[in-house]
Design a protein that fits this description.
12 helices; globular; 81% helix; mainly alpha
């Protein structure tokens, strides 16, 4: 059962990107993020009550709470950048850049937390991962280069903030149950997302959201929540060193469905890049 849950976690995580892009063809990405986070928040608190971690909420210290809030802010910034990038870029280009957060997280963990076990292998894997990302985002035509300028900064921002999220969350959940920590962070993301909507004067667009796109936005939130539920079940009942690489392979699902739904085809170089990313991710997850 836990192996099935790990596979479903990757499946739902990969579907999230495709469903979200379907929901932001006309809908503003900031509005979509705010609406989607409502659904994710419901799922995150559902996990809290399922595992019973709500009973420990009184024991959260001030330091942990501060870092959980900071992690939530970083998550919100990452999501805002990510969905903005998806709204103007191809899924099979945006997702690999977003996954580069793994590189930043590993490097920061080495420097900040002294995680130097199998250091040489970690550095080799990060280099291979970086090479794979460069191969996947490479474009030749002038028009394509101009298009890349519009989505690439947001995708990079998404990766940077995602890496910060991991580091801040690691500190924030030292003495906090992981599901409860996730729920608190998601609450911060929700507040932040709606602050951005109102600060930019986009609140009037909420009611004008296309119903079809609203459905896809809701489905993307459900996919994220379902991925989290499956992931934490798999982690709790299975072998972590097997679950993590399976979950990370959600990029394969994203690329597959982007090809089916949006007809986004990989070049030979991009396919090679994807192969390098997958190999590096699996090696890092299993042997480091």
């Amino acid at each position: 059962m836990w192996l099935l849950m790990a596979v479903l976690s990757a499946l739902f995580a990969g579907l999230t990107s495709v469903l979200a892009k379907c929901g932001i063809k006309q809908t503003d990405s900031d509005v979509a993020t705010a609406l989607r986070t409502i659904v994710v928040l419901v799922f995150s608190w559902l996990m809290v009550f399922v595992v019973g971690s709500y009973r420990t909420i009184d024991g959260i210290g001030a330091r942990s709470l501060v870092f959980l809030v900071l992690s939530g802010i970083a998550t919100g910034a990452s999501w805002l950048c990510y969905f903005k990038a998806l709204s103007v870029g191809d899924v099979n280009k945006v997702v690999p850049v977003d996954k580069s957060s793994t590189i930043l997280t590993v490097l920061m963990a080495i420097v900040l937390f002294g995680e130097t076990k199998n250091l040489a292998l970690k550095l080799v894997c990060t280099a291979v991962l970086g090479a794979g990302i460069l191969l996947m985002v490479e474009k030749k035509s002038g028009a394509a280069k101009e298009s890349r300028k519009s989505w690439l900064p947001y995708a990079v921002g998404s990766a940077v903030f995602a890496a910060l999220t991991s580091i801040l969350a690691k500190i924030g959940i030292e003495n906090v149950e992981s599901n409860l920590g996730t729920a608190i962070r998601t609450g911060v993301v929700l507040v932040m997302a709606w602050i951005v909507v109102f600060a930019k004067g986009k609140q009037d667009r909420v009611l004008r959201t296309d119903r079809k796109e609203l459905a896809f936005i809701g489905l993307s939130g459900i996919a994220t929540g379902a991925s989290w539920l499956c992931y934490y079940y798999a982690i709790g009942h299975g072998v972590v060193s097997v679950v993590v690489p399976i979950d990370k392979l959600s990029i394969l699902v994203s690329v597959l469905f982007s090809g089916i739904v949006f007809k986004e085809r990989l070049t030979k170089k991009a396919a090679l890049g994807l192969g390098l990313m997958v190999a590096a991710t699996v090696a890092m997850a299993i042997w480091t």
